[in-house]
Amino acid sequence: MRHRAALLALLLGCGRAPGPPDAGPGDAGSARTFATAAQEAAVALAHEFYDGDGHWNACVPANCYTANYDWGADSLTDALYLRWVQSHDPLIVPWMRALDATATEWKPCVVPYCMAWSDIPLWDSIASVRVFEVTEDAAALDRAKSDFDTVAASAAFATGACPSIDYQQQPNGGPIGLKTLETDSNFVKAALLLYEQTSDAAYLRRAAQKYRAVRRYFLDPEVPLYTVFVIDDGNACAQVPHRFFASVNGNMIWAGVHLSRATGDAAYQDDAVATAEAVAGQLSDAAGLFEDLEGEDDLVEPLVEGMSELAGEQPFARDWILKNATAAQAARNGEGLFGRFFGGPPPGGPVTEWQANGGFALSFTAAALSPDAPVVPDPFWSAGSYVDAGFSDPPFSIAFEGRGIALVGTLGEVCCAGAGHARVFVDGTETFDETGIWQNESPASVAPPSASASLPGSILFSWRWPAPGTHTLLLEPGLPNPKEGGSYLHVQGYTVAP
User: Fold this and answer.
1) CA distances (Å), 411 to each of 62, 246, 301, 355, 447, in order?
2) Phi/psi of residue 424, nearest 5 degrees
3) Residue whose C-alpha is closest to residue 298's, from 346, 259, 251, 332
4) CB atoms < 10 A from the CB of 149, how many?
5) Potential cystine with 289: which of 98, 107, 339, 343 (Cβ 3.0-4.6 Å)?
6) Is 263 in contact with 239 (CB distance < 8 Å)?
7) Is residue 377 in some structural domain?
8) The domain spanning residue 470 has which CATH number?
9) 183 with 117, same domain?
10) pTM of the predicted model, to two decimals?
11) Tell me: the pLDDT tens digits for 361-395?
């Protein structure tokens, strides 16, 4: 805790404490820039999510638990790395050293059973390379290699009808035979990062091999986006279609750019651009803002990283970052914490690391691209009106007049339930990412020691239009599948922006 107090004192000496979304630094007439916003975000990250002892708080203000491993914690370490890239702030070095000291080192799995799921050590491997880049601690790089080998040097996960992609669990993908691109896209990214740090061509070969397998099994047959789930029952491999996680698509954009650099093959770069263009064009709301529909099972920080790799040469990627970063400034609560939906209202309930990582990453990346550009949060939701609804058991519809709507409910309302999702049709058209709303997918509700820690007052869905109009949301039951189970939805109310 003393480490956090010292860090905050120094950070606050350079900036100011985060305030309400419409607050600006210094005098009322002073210009607020992306650099200012990045400084505010760094303070909020230190004050709210860092525990001062080398761990991240999973939820704030009432913490669910602290940890320094797996995807949620790693997403904040990766966001902190983006801040270091943007600012080279020397205060980040001891912060990263503290995270280095508490990191978990995984060992190769032994068939037939592995303690770790396959994606966990790969998330951790990437974070450890980032720590190494900041601290230059050789132990962090050795740990990244060991974490990577937990999956790469083991036969425990590469089985089934399509063994070139990995099961998430052992044995045989657990009860449903799940293979997830969270494992395989992180495999590619971790291998490339290790290649770039070691020049060991074996890592590059592994990355290229896995990249080809990912494109074979996870790439959508009609658009250059990657679904995240494949079910391998031992006889055949089938996609759960149109589950376009930000994390895995971001990883694949990043991987395409870095494979192209490493090999000189422009086809990888073309793949990356095509996926990024599809993200910008297909996974945005009517106002052109990215809206992540994946509940708590996704991270947006890797997508920001992927877009930033293209931003120097692709104007659409630069525009995507700056537009979403501007919108996200109005999606902060009074503590300066971002919600999951960049175009949504500030979170009214607890904020988790799975939600906030994307906004932090956007703030730091936008400051790297355009530090002196003025940024003024759009008071889009300030005149919004809340309707206490109590809808459940779809189908049901909501008709309204306005230019934005946000549905509110309890995330993880039914702890550990298989059922937890619903389809969403906006003015008669289903969202392109067919997840819709995945209400009961909440790691905070099941991860020890916080069992049953549901998150009331959460934004379940948000959508914006460029101008007011008459609109209808139709909520339909979710179609059952092995990963998401059956249908569930309970909307407690909604806010309409006029």
Assistant:
1) 15, 19, 21, 12, 14
2) -125, 130
3) 251
4) 16
5) 343
6) no
7) no
8) 2.60.120
9) yes
10) 0.94
11) 999 999 999 999 999 888 899 999 999 998 998 99
